[in-house]
Amino acid sequence: MDPLHHHIHTKKYHSEMIHHLGNLIRINTRNPPGNELEAVKYITKVFDKEKVDTIVLESAPGRGNLIARIKGDGSKKPLLLMSHLDVVGVEPEKWDHDPFSGEIIDGSLWGRGALDCKNSVVLWMMILLILKREKITPKRDVIFLATADEETGGRYGARWLLDNHFELIEAEAALNEGGGFGREFLGHTFYTYQTAEKGNIWLRLTVRGKAGHASMPGKSNPTLKVIHLVNRLIKRKGRFAVTDTVRKMVEVMSEAQRFPVNILMKQILNPILSETIISAAIKDEATADGFRAMLKNTVCPTVLRAGQKVNVIPSEASAEVDIRILPGEDSEKTLEDLIRIIGDDVDVEVLDRVPPTESPLDHLLADSIRKTMARHKPDSFLIPLMLPGSSDGAFFRTKGTVVYGFTPVLPMDDMGLAHAHNERISLQSLEFSLNVGLETVLDFVL
Ligand SMILES: [Zn+2]
Predict the structure, then answer these.
(1) CA atoms within 13 Å, Cβ hemisphere of 279
(2) Sign of dihedral through CA atoms 54, 157, 167, 408?
(3) Which residues lie below 8 Å from residue 332, measured CB to CB, with a gap of 6+?
(4) What is the CA 300 to chain-centroid distance, rounded?
């Protein structure tokens, strides 16, 4: 279904979308503290004016979550359009322009959240407004959800909502952030729809011992023990595993190439040749690390704490370690294995744990994405994507919702700017995003 068939002129909606995105970026929702309620109030006002039903849910003072709904005829199960309102912090002195100005400079809208993910917030908001104004009755309820606290793990947002108000956001399928962007690779353009997210296990490991003089080091130096412990964990060889998402992604990317690149590239899926191909053929280090992370569990020590003074052995030392596991792995079992390696003289705290998740690659919603992309970008390829991290989407997948990360963005925009300095999105991407997002939703709900 194409908006043209509904005589929807998206031009005017496009300028409205830019206006709202600028306003939302100017509402500072840096998390912590979040203060998402301010953004919730803004969006509620927009929906109220159009008589779209909303529910505001505060998980803690200032931590606002917003649900809005366009009723369908009830013949099919709901579609959820989800995003988050909080953003990560900024170092304003490292930006070329004010990160909360929402200004348009050289064809791009600037500010924290422009790519992650106030662009998704306004995209889904505009789609509900369009359904309402154009008097379209979908076959499915279309639910808008903007959460608090995604950037620090969702305790005041997605997790809290699913524990306390699941009935308000239960849907067959959802569109989310974390995919939809285009990437150029070896002469072709690939658009992504995110189907999988790695899980995480965050540990704090503490070793205790006897304080003493560093001139007479004994065996029980906690600093040394933590160093050995971290080394043991890093050396633990991650099992190589190919998930459905990564298999399909590499297959499509390979088939786009000519002989012999197509054959060689497919070897990324071969446990013996994978690393050789990745390190020889992928020049960009971040892209190469991205491929590696999609094929293995990873262990990454991040925070180390020990000692105060060079000549004093401390009585305590600790390490925090970020472990990411692939879909298909049992998070419980992985944790048990790790604890065995760590040993019982170490105090283990689990700081956070999110299970790995994967949605089926094929679903009616995936068909809608595919059809729409084929119309808009016939020369590009659509690939499923695995996020090496996790988003709110993971919590919904564990509840049985099919979740795809699909907020369309053109390859001209660098997704690497999300969480970095000078985050911005081109107006061209916003227009593309609205057209593709709207047509995908219409195709699925009509
Ligand atoms: Zn995000």
Answers:
(1) 4
(2) positive
(3) none
(4) 19
Taking the chain (446 residues) in runs of 10, the rounded mean pLDDT of each run is 65 96 98 97 98 98 98 97 98 96 97 98 98 96 98 96 98 98 94 98 96 88 95 87 98 96 96 96 91 95 96 97 95 92 94 97 98 97 96 97 98 94 98 97 97
Contact 174, 366 (CB under 8 A): no
Rounded Cα distance between 264 and 277, Å, is 7
Q: Which residues contact 251 (CB under 8 A, 6 or more apart)?
A: 266
CATH 3.30.70.360 domain position(s) in the chain: 199-354
CA 381 to chain centre: 21
Please give the distance, rounded to the nearest whole angstrom, from the Cα atom of residue 315 to the centre of ligand 1: 40
Q: Please spell the DSSP secondary structure of 272-338, one letter per residue.
A: TTHHHHHHHH--SHHHHHHHHHTTB-EEEEEEEEE-SSTTEE-SEEEEEEEEEE-TTS-HHHHHHHH
Return the structure tokens found at 266: 């497919």
Cα(5) to centroid(ligand 1), Å? 33
CATH number given to 3-186+357-445? 3.40.630.10
Q: Rounded CA gap, 301 and 231, in Å?
A: 9
For CATH 3.40.630.10, the residue range(s) in the chain are 3-186+357-445
CA of 405 to the centre of ligand 1 (A): 10
In the structure, ligand 1 is a single-atom ion and the residues with CB under 5 Å from it are 116-117, 177
Give the burial class of 423: count Cβ atoms within 10 A of its Cβ; 0-12 exposed, 13-18 middle, 19 or more buried.
buried
Nearest one of 121, 2, 107, 41 to 425, comparing CA atoms: 107
DSSP letters, 20-40, are: HHHHHHHS--BTTT--THHHH
- CA of residue 53 to ligand 1 center, whole Å: 25
C-alpha 47/C-alpha 260 separation (Å) is 54
How far, in Å, from the CA of 217 to the mean position of ligand 1? 47
What is the H or E stretch that residue 163 is in? Answer: helix 158-164
Identify which of 96, 178, 128 has the alpha carbon closest to the alpha carbon of residue 422: 96
- Report the first-to-last Cα separation within the chain, whole angstroms: 8
Class of domain 199-354: alpha beta
**Which two structure tokens, joined as six digits, stand for 440?**
């995908």
